UniProtKB/TrEMBL annotation:
One of its GO terms (biological process) is cilium assembly. It comes from the Eukaryota. This is Intraflagellar transport protein 81. Signal peptide: none annotated. GO terms for cellular component: ciliary basal body; intraciliary transport particle B.
Length: 147
């Protein structure tokens, strides 16, 4: 039984090999005819150029798909980073505001006891400049106010 199967497979292999040779010969003949016709029409190499363009197009499509995936991945990372920054900012905002109040109170106490008018005026300008800087920083935070 195995010998019969082996014999059948060898016969089928011979037939398939011969069919392949015939088809390759026909392909070469048709390609020669196509080249001759293109030369007669004045468009030599058109089919080769068309084949190349199809290959380039399929390569471009695969590159575009990879690029799109990369952009989606980067977008996800940026969104995650923005979320973490906002989370940390909201956690630190009350602490910073408390520290600012303590600093301003400290300046006011020191200026009321020992400073001259010029020193007090300078401290007042410093405090208000500091308040304006903090306000400006709060306004400039992306996504939380006008610029």
């Amino acid at each position: 039984m195995k010998r019969a199967e082996l014999s059948d497979l060898r016969a089928e292999y011979g037939i398939l090999s011969r069919t392949e040779e015939i088809l390759k010969a026909k392909d070469a003949h048709l390609l020669g005819q196509l080249n001759t016709m293109e030369a007669q029409m004045g468009v030599s190499g058109f089919h080769e150029t068309q084949d190349t363009m199809e290959k380039v197009s399929s390569l471009k499509a695969s590159v575009d798909a990879r690029k799109g995936q990369s952009l989606e991945d980067m977008s996800g990372m940026v969104m995650e980073l923005n979320r973490k920054v906002a989370e940390r900012k909201s956690h630190l905002a009350p602490i910073i505001k408390g520290e600012i109040v303590l600093i301003i109170t400290s300046f006011r106490i020191e200026s009321a006891d020992t400073w001259t008018y010029g020193d007090t005026l300078g401290a007042w300008h410093s405090i208000h400049h500091y308040d304006l800087c903090i306000l400006w920083c709060q306004v400039r935070v992306p996504g939380e106010g006008a610029r």
